[in-house]
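[Discussion] Sanity-checking designs against the backbone

I'm trying to build intuition for which residues belong where. Below is a C-alpha cell string of 140 positions. I'd appreciate it if someone posts a full sequence so I can compare it with mine line by line.
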C-alpha cells in the first residue's frame, strides 16, 4: 500500500464512520417509533375493556394525561400515512398498529445488520491501515 492508497483508505474510514453515525441515528428513530406504537397498542387494548360513559385518563405525551369520558369503546382514529387519519373499528385499529410494529421491528433488524456489516468493514480496513502505517514507520 503506497501513501496515496493509505490516504484513500483513511478517507474510506471517514465515510464508514459517517455511515455508522447515520445508521445509529436511524435505529434510534425507529426505536422511538416502536415505543410510541407499543404505547398506542397498550392504550387501545386498555380502552377496549373500558365501560362506556366512564372517566379515563388519556395520555397526551410527555408523561401528561387528560381526563376524558368514554363515548364509545368500539372505534378509534388511526393514522394511515401522509397526515391522513381514519376511523376504524377498534380491532382493526389494533391490527393496523400491530402491522406497523412488525414493519418497524424488521426495519430495526435490517439497520442492525447493515450497521454490523459497516462496523466489520471499518474494523478490517482500520487494521490494514494500522499495519501498513507500522510498516512505513519501520522503513523510515
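Best answer:
Here's mine. Compare freely.
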Amino acid at each position: 500500500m503506497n501513501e496515496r492508497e493509505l490516504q484513500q483508505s483513511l478517507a474510506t474510514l471517514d465515510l464508514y464512520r459517517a455511515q455508522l453515525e447515520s445508521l445509529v441515528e436511524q435505529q434510534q428513530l425507529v426505536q422511538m417509533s416502536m415505543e410510541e406504537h407499543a404505547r398506542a397498542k397498550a392504550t387501545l387494548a386498555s380502552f377496549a375493556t373500558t365501560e362506556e360513559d366512564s372517566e379515563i385518563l388519556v395520555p397526551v405525551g410527555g408523561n401528561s394525561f387528560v381526563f376524558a369520558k368514554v363515548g364509545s369503546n368500539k372505534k378509534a382514529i388511526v393514522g394511515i400515512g401522509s397526515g391522513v387519519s381514519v376511523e376504524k373499528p377498534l380491532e382493526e385499529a389494533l391490527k393496523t398498529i400491530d402491522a406497523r410494529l412488525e414493519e418497524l421491528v424488521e426495519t430495526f433488524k435490517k439497520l442492525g445488520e447493515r450497521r454490523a456489516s459497516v462496523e466489520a468493514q471499518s474494523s478490517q480496513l482500520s487494521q490494514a491501515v494500522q499495519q501498513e502505517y507500522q510498516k512505513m514507520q519501520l522503513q523510515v
